[in-house]
Every structure is written in structure tokens, then in C-alpha cells.
């Protein structure tokens, strides 16, 4: 479980990408090198002998793709939310993004309670990314002006601490200064 | 003499690299492509240097304005007048020789002019202050003008430039391809290596042209409405629907996403056509043409709607069902990639490879493209995109897709260069280029993905917090290698030597 928790983070994404790329790159390097330098002649393999390899390869790719996505389902914020919000009171955090600051209804949050973030933009596209104190992105949200519904995410914080909020949608010359902070405190 | 030839001849430095050999009788398929290719490389030099400026502004703490100016110019110039134009030039030259039709008349001239003039006008707008990034981030241009960050004039100039660039990609280029494929007389003396539309080498070109045209038309309508309103031809109230951020963004990405896929189709098609020419046993056959075509079709069908992955974090404004759909379709393109991996490697395994710098550049570019594809499907997964959207991961993906395709075209160009110019390139320099660009581009790609994994934001003028500068320094280091590799490539083009053998023979060899 803990391993899956890691897989579905930013660094998990990095290693999964490498898992797809590195074996392919080694294989391609080996085939190209061998067939252009070592044993350049045609290989005495009949097309019928390629077919099973082709089948195995495509099946492997398909199964890997399906598993990687199915296993990710419970890490989708809206799916995770439907599991945790049963009966528990939700903390509601409303915010408005406007170049280049946030207006946040409540910056102090209790750990362990599901929080619903609902946000709007009042001018151009903005983001609202919450960073764990260790530097990871926990989730990011995209807001466009003029929508009838707010953009929304439910998240349950585990660790008390200071959480940076940053805008991750380019919004003009002071985009990098569009930041804020949430404080997560121990539940009493 | 074609106007194109004249322009190439009178361009300093670059003109020498692409002067068309007229003794071959192939000027009609060479002149405009040579001009397009030459122009694309001028943009590469300028915008590549700007790429190095970006990390430099961060390392030396220069004003954030410089960072955003450079970012906008770098992204826009490398995507459109460099990469797209390079593809257009090499692709047109290829298809001219495959179907035996001249690339002359007003359409190629219009395509070239509208791309380069448009990009130049956009550059002026950015220098006037319009720092909106390559993807415009609508309604940012208008909001910035309202806030007084840049002028309304710069917005009008900028949209005019973008409009011309889009017209080239959505109208002039695809129409030219369709015209060549279905109309006009085939001329035997222009045929270099005949291909039919059923072959992967041509099918991809056709599918790509159709994709650009069809997925771009809605954006043409929206863009035309906005430009007319900006020029006050129609009242703003009539354009309000097009200025709605959601309408604009969805039409924009329907095209922008498929633009990348169309470029991929085109370059995959060029690879399927070029690889057989370098097989050791002279069989000139892919492992399976059917499979190669299937890969193109899978890519096409899955890509049309996979662009929904750009808006997953907009939930619930983008309903969950559409996000699931975008997620699934994106991984479907991965199945297309899996088929192409098998086809390429089985072909080489079956027939052996006559290695030359050109084909090796194509293959390394393709490997880089596979890395990019892996990073792309990963970030199209809903769970992962919630943590990666808007980080350097996405810039890494964007830059790598454009760079890998450009690298493949530069390899294909290496193959076509003798026919285009009647001159020969030096293989040792060719290999040096391949080695350097492989290290530079792979390194930059992996570092940018890692930066994203670590939470480093994209398009962000402050890399100091949280230790992100580590990735910034590494991007600069690999970027220097990348820049040097281009210098080697150009040096090779500069010192290319006349071929003594009769060109006609060589072209048809
Ligand atoms: C010469 C070395 C290069 C360096 C040092 C470099 C550096 C960078 C950096 C740092 C970014 C990310 C900016 C950000 O999102 O904050 C970037 C983005 C990008 N680069 Fe490069 N780059 C180089 C060459 C290239 C080349 C050759 C191409 C295309 C063939 C290219 C295409 C792009 C594109 C399309 C983007 C995305 C722009 C955006 O998302 O706004 N770059 N580059
Ligand atoms: Cu913002």
C-alpha cells in the first residue's frame, strides 16, 4: 500500500516513465547496434516467428496500461473524497484568485478532516497548488473566469505544518509572486 | 528562377547552406522547401540562444520580465517557425518527389510568407510587452491590457501575428498537401521515389493534413471573430461568445493538441519512408506496412479527443466523464507507440541497418519521442496530473515532443540534403552532431521531468525556493550541449562539398 502511495506521486510518475523508457531504450540500442555493426546481414527469422513476439509485446503493453490506470483510481481526488466524506463534517475553504493574490476564507485547517477547496478566478486563468512542507505538490486546481461552478477538490491533510500555495497556471508578469500559505494544525 | 531561390541566394550565411542546385532540373520541388528549411534554422538559432538565456536570467537573478519575454519567444519561435516550418519544408520536398508534382505557385509562397511574417509580427508584439507564453493563456492578453501591464496595441499586433501563423498551419499548408496529392499533373521527371497513398510514407502526410484542417477550423472561426473585433470591424458584443475563456480554451486545445499529433503523424510517416532505404539487405521493406499504417490510424483516432487531459484539474467544470475519456484516449496513443516500436525494431532486426548519421538521427529522435510519449501518458492520468499539471514536467514534455520531432526531421533532411542542394555532408561531423544532440536532448528532457516530479513550477520566474535551482543549472548544462550540437550541424552544412556524380543519378539512387 505504502508503495502505491509513492507510485502515485510526482516522483512515482518519474520512475514509472523511466520504467517504460529505459528497457525500451536499451532494447533499441542493442538491436540498432547489433544490426548495424555486429551482425549486419538479414536475420533468418520467418515473419511467422515474429508474430508471437508481437503478440506478447502488445499484450504486455496493454495489461501494463490497464493496471497502471486502474490502480490510480483511488488516488483521484474526487474518488478519494467520496470514500472519506461519509458522514464526517467537511471543512469548507473558499477562495478567489485574482492577479496576483488569493482571497482565502480560512487559512487554518485541522489535520485528519476532509477539506473541500472551492475556488474561482475573477480575471484570467489561475492555478491553486498546495505544496506539502516537504516540497511535494499535493494537488493543483485550474480556475477560469466566468464559470458558473467553482473548481473544487477535497483533500485530507495528515501532517501539521505550513503548506505553501502557488499558482501553477501562467498568469502574467508577477505570476511567480502569486503565493499564499495554509497552516495545518493537529486536530484537538 | 523562382523567387524562393533568389531569397535563399541573397541571405547571408544561411543562404550558402541551402542554395539549390539548379542543374538537377528539380528546382520546382526544391526551391520553396529549401527556403522554408533555411528560414526555420534562422529561427532555431535565435530562439535556441533564448533557451539558454532563460536559466541564465534565473541564475543571475535578472528581472523576471526578461524571463517571461524569453519564455514566450522561445516557446513560440521553436514550435511554429522552427519546428513546424522545418517539417513543412522537408515534408513538401519529400512528397513532391513521391508524387511527382511541382511545389510552385501562390500556395507555397503564401504558406512561407504567412508563417514567417506572422512569427515576426508576434515577436514584435512580445518585445512591445505582450508576455503571454506560447499558449496565450486566454483571456490573459486582454486582462493584461486592462491592467495596463502591456498595451492594447501589443495585443492587436500579437493576435495579428498568431492569426497569420495559424493560417499557415491550418489552411495554406494542409491545402497545399491535399492539392499535391489529389490535383495537378504528375510529371515523370520530378518523381524521385514514387509512393502511393496506401504506403505509410504517404498516408501519414495525408492524415496529418486532414487533421490540421479539420481540428483547426473551429479555431479559425473563433480567431477570425476575435481579430475582427480587435480591429473594430465588428462590435465586441458580437465577439463575446468567442472571447469566453472556456470556449476559447477548448477550441484552442482541440487544435493545439492535434497540431502536435499531426506533426507526429507526419514525422512517423517520414520515418517509415526513410528507414527502408537504409536496410542492409537492400529489401527496402518494412517489417509490415499494415502494422505501420495501423499505428498511424491508432494515433489519429485516439488523439482527436485526448486533448481533454489538459483540463482535468478544472473539475467539476470539466465533468469527470470527459476527464476519464481523455485519460483513456491518451493511453490509447501509447498503444499506437507500442505498435510502432515493434514495427521499427522488427524491421531492423529482420533486414539489418546501413548506419549513416541521417538515419541514426532519425532513430535517436524517435527514441526521444518514445520517452516523451511515456511522460505524456503518465501526466494524462488523472491521479498523476493533479500533481504534475503546471509543473516543469509539462514544459519538459512540450519541449521534448517538439525537439524530438525536429531531430527526426533534421535526420530526414540529412538524407535529402544532397538532392536538395547537390552537396554532400561529412559523416564524421554528422555523427558528432548525433552524439551531442542525443546527450543534450535526453539530459534536458530527464532533468525537466525530474524538476516537475520535485514540484518545480513551469513558466515561473523564481527557481530559488525548494532547491529547484539544481534542475535549472542542469538544464543550462545540457542546453549548452544541445546548442553546441546545432552549431556542429550548421558547420557541416556550411562546409558541404559539391558532389561530382551526376545529380539525376544520385537523386534516383
Ligand atoms: C538550446 C538549449 C535549450 C534550453 C536551455 C532550453 C530551455 C528551456 C526551458 C528552461 C524551458 C521551460 C520554461 C518554463 O516552462 O519555465 C523551455 C521550454 C520550451 N522549450 Fe526549450 N530549451 C532549449 C532548446 C529548445 C529547442 C531546440 C526546442 C525545440 C525544438 C525547445 C522547445 C521548447 C518548448 C516548445 C518549450 C515550452 C514553452 C512553454 O511551455 O511555454 N527548446 N526550454
Ligand atoms: Cu495566477
What are the SSEs and their pairings?
The complex is a heterodimer of chains A (188) and B (509).
Chain A: H1 2-7, H2 10-38, H3 47-70, H4 77-84, E1 91-98, E2 101-104, E3 108-110, E4 114-121, E5 126-131, E6 137-143, E7 151-156, E8 161-166, E9 179-185
Parallel strand pairs in A: 1-4, 3-9
Antiparallel strand pairs in A: 1-2, 4-7, 5-6, 5-8, 8-9
Chain B: H1 3-9, H2 14-18, H3 27-59, H4 64-99, H5 106-127, H6 140-146, H7 152-182, H8 200-230, H9 236-239, H10 245-274, H11 289-306, H12 320-351, H13 357-380, H14 382-388, H15 392-421, E1 423-424, H16 427-453, H17 469-494, E2 497-498, H18 503-508
Antiparallel strand pairs in B: 1-2
Helix pairs in contact in B: 1-3, 3-4, 3-5, 3-17, 4-5, 4-7, 4-10, 4-15, 5-7, 7-8, 8-10, 8-11, 10-11, 10-15, 11-12, 12-13, 13-15, 13-16, 15-16, 16-17
Protoporphyrin IX containing FE (HEM) binds next to α3, α4, α15 and α17 of chain B.
Describe this entry's structure for a reader.
- The complex is a heterodimer of chains A (188) and B (509).
- Chain A folds into 2 domains: 2-75, no CATH class; 88-185, Immunoglobulin-like, CATH 2.60.40.420.
- With 188 residues, chain A is an alpha+beta fold.
- In chain A, strand 5 and strand 6 (137-143) form a beta hairpin.
- The model of chain A has no long low-confidence stretch (mean pLDDT 90).
- Chain A has 4 helices and 9 strands.
- With 509 residues, chain B is mainly α.
- Chain B is 74% helix and 1% strand.
- Chain B is built from 18 helices and 2 strands.
- Chain B has helices spanning 3-9, 14-18, 27-59, 64-99, 106-127, 140-146, 152-182, 200-230, 236-239, 245-274, 289-306, 320-351, 357-380, 382-388, 392-421, 427-453, 469-494, 503-508, and strands at residues 423-424, 497-498.
- A two-stranded antiparallel sheet of chain B has the order 1-2.
- In chain B, helix 8 (200-230) runs antiparallel to helix 10 (245-274), helix 8 packs parallel to helix 11 and helix 13 runs antiparallel to helix 15.
- The radius of gyration of chain B is 22 Å and the shape is globular.
- Chain B starts with a helix and ends with a helix.
- The relative contact order of chain B is 0.10.
- The model of chain B has no long low-confidence stretch (mean pLDDT 92).
- Chains A and B meet through helix 2, helix 3, strand 5, strand 6 and strand 7 of A and helix 4, helix 6, helix 10, helix 12 and helix 13 of B.
- Bound molecules: protoporphyrin IX containing FE (HEM) and copper (II) ion.
Amino acid at each position: 500500500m505504502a508503495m502505491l502511495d509513492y507510485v502515485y506521486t510526482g516522483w512515482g510518475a518519474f520512475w514509472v516513465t523511466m520504467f517504460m523508457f529505459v528497457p525500451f531504450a536499451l532494447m533499441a540500442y542493442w538491436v540498432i547496434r547489433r544490426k548495424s555493426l555486429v551482425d549486419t546481414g538479414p536475420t533468418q527469422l520467418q515473419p511467422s516467428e515474429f508474430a508471437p513476439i508481437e503478440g506478447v509485446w502488445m499484450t504486455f503493453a496493454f495489461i501494463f496500461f490497464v493496471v497502471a490506470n486502474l490502480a490510480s483510481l483511488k488516488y483521484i481526488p474526487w474518488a478519494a473524497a467520496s470514500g472519506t466524506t461519509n458522514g464526517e463534517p467537511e471543512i469548507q475553504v473558499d477562495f478567489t484568485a485574482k492577479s496576483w493574490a488569493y482571497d482565502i476564507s480560512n487559512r487554518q485547517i485541522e489535520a485528519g478532516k476532509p477539506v473541500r477547496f472551492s475556488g474561482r478566478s475573477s480575471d484570467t486563468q489561475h492555478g491553486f497548488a498546495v505544496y506539502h512542507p516537504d516540497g511535494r505538490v499535493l494537488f493543483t486546481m485550474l480556475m477560469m473566469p466566468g464559470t458558473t461552478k467553482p473548481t473544487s477538490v477535497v483533500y485530507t491533510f495528515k501532517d501539521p505544518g505550513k503548506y505553501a500555495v502557488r499558482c501553477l497556471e501562467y498568469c502574467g508578469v508577477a505570476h511567480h509572486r502569486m503565493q499564499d500559505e495554509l497552516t495545518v494544525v493537529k486536530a484537538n | 528562377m523562382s523567387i524562393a531561390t533568389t531569397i535563399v541566394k541573397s541571405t547571408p550565411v544561411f543562404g550558402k547552406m541551402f542554395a539549390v542546385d539548379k542543374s538537377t532540373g528539380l528546382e520546382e520541388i526544391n526551391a520553396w522547401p529549401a527556403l522554408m528549411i533555411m528560414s526555420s534554422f534562422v529561427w532555431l538559432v535565435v530562439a535556441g540562444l533564448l533557451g539558454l538565456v532563460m536559466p541564465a536570467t534565473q541564475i543571475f537573478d535578472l528581472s523576471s520580465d526578461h524571463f517571461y519575454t524569453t519564455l514566450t519567444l522561445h516557446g513560440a519561435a521553436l514550435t511554429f517557425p522552427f519546428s513546424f516550418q522545418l517539417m513543412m519544408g522537408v515534408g513538401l520536398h519529400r512528397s513532391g518527389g513521391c508524387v511527382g508534382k511541382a511545389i510552385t505557385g501562390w500556395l507555397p509562397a503564401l504558406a512561407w510568407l504567412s508563417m514567417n511574417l506572422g512569427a515576426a509580427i508576434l515577436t514584435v508584439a512580445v518585445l512591445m510587452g505582450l508576455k503571454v507564453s506560447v499558449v496565450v493563456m486566454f483571456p490573459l492578453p486582454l486582462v493584461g491590457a486592462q491592467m495596463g501591464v502591456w498595451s492594447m496595441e501589443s495585443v492587436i499586433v500579437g493576435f495579428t501575428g498568431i492569426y497569420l501563423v495559424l493560417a499557415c498551419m491550418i489552411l495554406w499548408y494542409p491545402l497545399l498537401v491535399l492539392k499535391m496529392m489529389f490535383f495537378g499533373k504528375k510529371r515523370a521527371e520530378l518523381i524521385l521515389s514514387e509512393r502511393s497513398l496506401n504506403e505509410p510514407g504517404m498516408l501519414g502526410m495525408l492524415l496529418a493534413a486532414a487533421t490540421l484542417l479539420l481540428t483547426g477550423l473551429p479555431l479559425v472561426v473563433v480567431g477570425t471573430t476575435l481579430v475582427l473585433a480587435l480591429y473594430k470591424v465588428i462590435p465586441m458584443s458580437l465577439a463575446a461568445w468567442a472571447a469566453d475563456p472556456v470556449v476559447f480554451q477548448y477550441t484552442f486545445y482541440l487544435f493545439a493538441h492535434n497540431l502536435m499529433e499531426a506533426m507526429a503523424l507526419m514525422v512517423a510517416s517520414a520515418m517509415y519512408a526513410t528507414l527502408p532505404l537504409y536496410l542492409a539487405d537492400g529489401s527496402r521493406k518494412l517489417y509490415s506496412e499494415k502494422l505501420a499504417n495501423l499505428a498511424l490510424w491508432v494515433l489519429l483516432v485516439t488523439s482527436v479527443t485526448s486533448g481533454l487531459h489538459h483540463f482535468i484539474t478544472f473539475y467539476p467544470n470539466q465533468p469527470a466523464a470527459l476527464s476519464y475519456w481523455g485519460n483513456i484516449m491518451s493511453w490509447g496513443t501509447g498503444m499506437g507507440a507500442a505498435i510502432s516500436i515493434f514495427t521499427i525494431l522488427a524491421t531492423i532486426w529482420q533486414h539489418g541497418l546501413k548506419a549513416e548519421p541521417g538515419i541514426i538521427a532519425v532513430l535517436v529522435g524517435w527514441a526521444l519521442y518514445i520517452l516523451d510519449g511515456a511522460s505524456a501518458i503518465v501526466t494524462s492520468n488523472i491521479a498523476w496530473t493533479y500533481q504534475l499539471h503546471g509543473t516543469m514536467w509539462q514544459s519538459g514534455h512540450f519541449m521534448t515532443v517538439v525537439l524530438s520531432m525536429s531531430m527526426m526531421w533534421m535526420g530526414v533532411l540529412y538524407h535529402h540534403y544532397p538532392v536538395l542542394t547537390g552537396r554532400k555532408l561529412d559523416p564524421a561531423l554528422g555523427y558528432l552532431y548525433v552524439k551531442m544532440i542525443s546527450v543534450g536532448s535526453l539530459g534536458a528532457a530527464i532533468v525537466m521531468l525530474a524538476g516537475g516530479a520535485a514540484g518545480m513550477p513551469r513558466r515561473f520566474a523564481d527557481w530559488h525556493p525548494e532547491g529547484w535551482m539544481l534542475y535549472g543549472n542542469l538544464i543550462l548544462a545540457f542546453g549548452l550541449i544541445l546548442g553546441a550540437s546545432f552549431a556542429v550541424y550548421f558547420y557541416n552544412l556550411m562546409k558541404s562539398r559539391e558532389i561530382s556524380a551526376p545529380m539525376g543519378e544520385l537523386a534516383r539512387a
